[in-house]
Amino acid sequence: xxxxxDEIWVYLSTTPLLGLTLTLLAYQAxxxxxxxxxxxxxxxxxxxxxxxxxxxxxxxxTPYQTYFDGAQFVHFLLGPATVALAIPLYAQLPRLxxxxxxxxxxxxxxxxxxxxxxxxxxxxxxxxRESLMSLAPKSVTTPIAMGIAERLGGLPSLTAVLxxxxxxxxxxxxRYIYRLLRIEDHAVRGFAIGIASHGIGTARAFQVSExxxxxxxxxxxxxGLATALSLPWILPxxxxxxxx
Length: 244
Fold this sequence. Notes:
By secondary structure, the protein is mostly helical. 83% of the residues lie in helices and 0% in strands. The chain contains 13 helices and no strands. The longest helix is centred in the last third of the chain and has 33 residues, at 210-242. The radius of gyration is 20 Å and the shape is globular.
């Protein structure tokens, strides 16, 4: 490290700017790689930037809390950014009204499938109750998922990791699943990835088209609401049936 860079690092490491600077630089570098790869889904910028940040924190021995003291500014912006998703959705209002019934059915089935398939697979593999309750809300956006996991007796920190992993996996793999199933409609593509992969999938959907992103944002919000309302009732009932 040159003397100049060393001075910058020493300064940043003593202020909350460290987390913010690292986050912005990591995402910028990841997006550069993503662009150079022709926006290929396997070069997902969220995946690359998470790997970069984790490597930097490990190599420099920086505690996560020190990093998050600065990164929380980016975290705060998630709220306004989520509300702003209503703007492209409003532009799709005529089609949204026409598809209200099939979208409602898809929401119920998709929401239950995402939660119960994770719970069932975990139960088959012998996961503890705490892990199962952390797994079930994995397809919901992080703040809601952590709240659900806490209420159900799961581990919110484990849920956060599972939510991010699910989002990255969906953003990377959705393109191939759509191709395999021959799904071409942008609204359908967007709604499906929004239910399965929340915000990270929605970010990927906006890179495809505004219509895909708008329907993904709608699905992400509705799935968060549906999961928060249904899981606290359904999972205890299933546990009673299974005698757990």
